[in-house]
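Sanity check

After download, print the first record. It should look like this:
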Amino acid sequence: MTLLTNILDYNQQFVQEHSYEEYRTTKFPDKRLVILTCMDTRLVELLPKSMNMKNGDVKIVKNAGALVSHPFGSIMRSLLVAVYELQADEVLVIGHHDCGMSAINSHKILEKMKERGVAEETLGTVNYSGIDLHDWLKGFSSVEESVSHSVDMIKNHPLMDKKIPIHGLVISPETGKLDLVVEGY
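Expected structure tokens:
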């Protein structure tokens, strides 16, 4: 049995038993907050629990490293939609200690891509198109600096409401302890 089959079987039972009812809410965050955080598996339940958040309280946007790497990419678009359409009045950027993005090595990732069948010619085409894959795949050395950078990108975005507080925090994936990096009030 495949992972997908297991998921679909469980989902069928979940729906039949009306298990979804305890999670019903609206698309608007009750605490009027949007969080940008990392996709790290340790944060899936720990992050909201450590902040006393439940289903319906916040919008959560996730990516590798909680990074805003492009001012007009999908992360920034999601944050703008949360503010202008979904009633979020504050933004939290939450990075974490021991993040995989702090140890990322673009050379190793590109080698793994080739091992899985991405042709050297394809990598050459991407490079020829103006994308520096080493720069695109780079990580960071300091999670605090990375969080501050993302806060600055959001705060100084030309389309962001200047009255919206943008905060930056770092969470411990071991204990859930939050450390303030940037207070946006």
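If your output differs, re-run the checksum step. Summary of this record's structure: The helical segments are 3-16, 43-50, 74-84, 106-115, 120-128, 133-136, 143-155.
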